[in-house]
Amino acid sequence: MAPRSARAPLVEPAPAKINLTLEIRGRRSDGYHELESLVAFARVGDRLRLVPGETLALDLRGPLAAALCGASDNLVLKAVRELAARIEGLTLGRFALWKRLPVAAGIGGGSSDAAAALRLMARANALGLDDPRLAEAACATGADVPVCMRARARLVRGIGEDLSDPLDLPKLSAVLVNPAIALATKNVFAAFSSRPSSTTRDAMPDRPALDAAAIPRGRGELVAQLRLRNNDLEQAAISLAPVVAEVLAELRALPECELARMSGSGATCFAIFRTARAALAAARALRAAHWHWWVCATVLG
Predict the structure, then answer these.
(1) Is 232 a catalytic residue?
(2) Which of 27, 101, 139, 142 has a 20 to 30 Å separation from 148 between CA atoms?
């Protein structure tokens, strides 16, 4: 390993992760849920900067930095420490996180930040992204970090560790909306587990699994297939935050909306629109009606 000696800052994007589908396939003996999710990434996200060679530290900046609890338990530092535990003499440094994504929002903000930190560590230490120690550190940091490492659309199974090869999905014009509500993933899963079995989908093994090779590459065909799927956590999230249902209803009522769904464990929802112009118009209308909501027109893929 030949560490990078220069202290020139390095920068990595940390794009939002969107669960186009999320289906619960069962529950393991350790309490974790097995899932299947078609994941895409948005063109909006956080940004992480590293000055290599300095003492490990993290500065929090940006419009949504105040929502973070603090730097000491941030996933950026956890990821770096996990990697440092596996590589003796790892060159560390000072990170600055520009936070643009809402926190505890179901769009993998913290996980994407952690993945960006590992990519920066790889660049600063001349590591290949296929180095198994990076993958180990990603898995040890959090379930969503592995899929964020290369930020490519994939089919995800297990608890997040079983990834398909990258998928070449068509670009989807979309609007992301978070109603200024933070939802803890563990609370949403707890609410899901407490619902009667007739209203959950734990015991539905007859649902056909998605086949990565058969996922449509055409835009219209993909949207049609997405309509046949769900986010199984949606009703559990709504039971904790009824405003999620309001967001979905407003998105579905907008002109040229083809599909609206919650991402991850919420509370962020997304809608797919026929055109980029329609998505931009929808975002403007939502901002005018709900100034306190986080609203962003973007592209998924």
Answers:
(1) no
(2) 27
